[in-house]
Specification:
alpha+beta, nine-stranded antiparallel beta sheet
Length: 210
Amino acid sequence: MIMYEATLHLQLEGDCVLSELASRTGDTIVIEVLELHDELVTFVVQAEGYARNCYEILSEAEQVEHVELLGDEAVLVTKSSCGAYPAIHRNNGVLRRQNRIDKRSRVYHILAFQHDDITNIIKDFQSFGTVTVDSLSEFPGTDPALTPRQREVVETALEAGYFEWPREISSEELATELGITRGTCLEHLRKAQAKLLRDAVDSLDDLQMT
């Protein structure tokens, strides 16, 4: 099943505590995203050698809901998103965990099931910054071990427009078309997406190591 991989550079127009952090430390910030909930994003800042300094800066920021030292090399943060992570999420994109941020720009590596998902992410990014597309390509990966039922559900969902934005079919309608309950339908989608994305990320990591 073909997926799409994009590397996007975003020049953020508004203020962001991570841009301030990069400016005050004089270094590029490396973060690993763990979770997105509503408009809040939770991530780890890799801060070997200056974790305490990062902690103090982040503790002062109004955008930050929670900050916690993880030893001497990292800081756990929950803050309101600048808009990029919700834009990726609502357009069915998946963000590879590690991202780099400097004073005004940040780089996002995104995987998506459809080309239009990437296009819509770019359009949403343009509402709060300037976007440059570094790369955009098909990413076939290998054939993941989906069960026949999982493959049927995913292919039906793709054909019916479930992964479009806005969606062209609801999960209830999709379940009815497949002759299963909504809960079963969502569970098949969840497991199939996890397998597809895990396979794509693993394959991409393998390629980068060669």
